Amino acid sequence: MSEQKPGPKLVSPKAPAPVARPAPSVQAPKPGPAGAIDPPVRPPVAPAKIRSRHRFVLWSFLLVVVAPLALVGWYLWTRADDQFASHLGFSVRTEENSSAIELLGGITELSGGSSSDTDILFAYLTSQELVRRVDERVDLRGIWAGQGPHGLMQGDPVFAFDETGTIEDLQEHWERQVSIVYDSGAGLIDLRILAFSPEEARAIATVLLDECTRMINELSDIAREDAIKYARDDLEVAVERLKTARQALTEFRNRTQIVDPTIDTQNQMGLLVTLQQQLAEALIELDLMSETSQENNPRVAQAQRRVEVINKRIEAERRNLGIGTSDEQGEVFATLVGEYEGLIVDREFAEAAYTTALAGFDAAQAAARKQSRYLAPHVRPTLAEKAEYPERIKIFLLIEVFLIFGWAIAVLVYYSLRDRK
């Protein structure tokens, strides 16, 4: 074989030499187990710098959250006095008497709650009148002004009361110190009274119970007085009606000189029946004489005369009884009897109305002699042994949550508005 000679080499133009750059300090990969190679280690990131916005957020947190919480904690645990609670609970009960028929039938209700009275009492518990009455009896201004080491004079304006305040201020402080829970379904009212000593709290609760009892008794007295008043008015009307009916009957008897026209009517009817019997006998006798005697017989004329006299008497008696014709003069007996019966009906009705009114008045008086509406306490004023108020931890946590949420919302709103610019 012939040996091939290499041809001429093509020489490319010479490229510029690359600039030498420092190689990054990258460690060579180290072989791991089973030939695995670890990723290269990057250089560490430079530390973050505190900018102005970070300082703003920090200082706002300190001013808005930390400082107020420190102030609240200092006030609650160093300046606020301990308060004791006295609890009280009651309801309004109404006695209802059942009739004899209801007792026999087994349908009775001895007592029940009156929701309307309880609603009135609930409104009275927050009234200015009750606050004034309790203040006059136990000096609420002095009790709630605080006699402890941190009273109002020593710098406790939050939980203590200023004795120089008006009755409106005292009523507003009453709503803070007296908590009322009203169960409208069961008709129960529960109260919690706060004071700076357990004895003062129980004293306020005791006076409060007395004033509520007095108010309920006044409502009961008003209801009883109304019931007696209505019954008394009905009785007076019935008495006047009975007097009028009896007076009219007396005037009738004086005018007619007849005590009982019904008795006279019975007598007149008996006389009329007798006359009719005599007339029938006289007619029979006249007929017999007319058939057996001569025409000029004086006995026949006498019998005819007797028949005429009896007929006239019968007509006169009929006129007296109102059976005659309409042109007779004077009052007929039937008219008198009708007037008398009307007067008797009026008198009987007046007597029945008087009896009913008298029974109602007696029943109203009997109901007035018993207490139909009363205050039934199921929790009497208690005496506390430990100060549970103010609830420092609860108040501190609530303020803390409120401040943190308020601060966070304010910061978010601020940066949201800033990003939109």
UniProtKB/TrEMBL annotation:
One annotated GO molecular function: protein tyrosine kinase activity
Disordered: region residues: 1-42
Gene Ontology CC: plasma membrane
Residue ranges the record marks as coiled coil: 235-320
Transmembrane segments: 56-77, 395-417
Domain of life: Bacteria
Keyword entries, A-Z: Coiled coil, Membrane, Transmembrane, Transmembrane helix
InterPro entries on file: Bact_polysacc_biosynth/exp (IPR050445)
Protein name (Swiss-Prot/TrEMBL): Capsular polysaccharide transport system permease protein
Species for this entry: Pelagimonas phthalicica
